[in-house]
């Protein structure tokens, strides 16, 4: 077997592993950023009580 073919195969393998590790790291960073953005969202306001008397009736004079 040719030495250059073996070293090219090993180099391709190392490059593939490095690319996979970089992709995983980028995905971890993106997940962390998404979690921080979700935590930064303000809490929604409480829904008004549907049984409240204010604004429940309209007086119409004809």
From TrEMBL:
Alphabetical list of InterPro entries matching this protein: YjfB_motility (IPR025906)
Name assigned to this protein: Putative motility protein
Protein's organism: Denitromonas halophila
Lineage: Bacteria, Pseudomonadati, Pseudomonadota, Betaproteobacteria, Rhodocyclales
Pfam families: YjfB_motility
């Amino acid at each position: 077997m040719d030495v250059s073919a073996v070293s090219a195969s090993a180099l391709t393998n190392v490059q593939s592993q490095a690319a996979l590790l970089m992709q995983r790291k980028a995905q971890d960073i993106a997940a962390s950023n998404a979690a921080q953005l979700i935590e930064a969202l303000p809490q929604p306001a409480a829904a008004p009580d549907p049984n409240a008397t204010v604004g429940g009736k309209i007086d119409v004079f004809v």
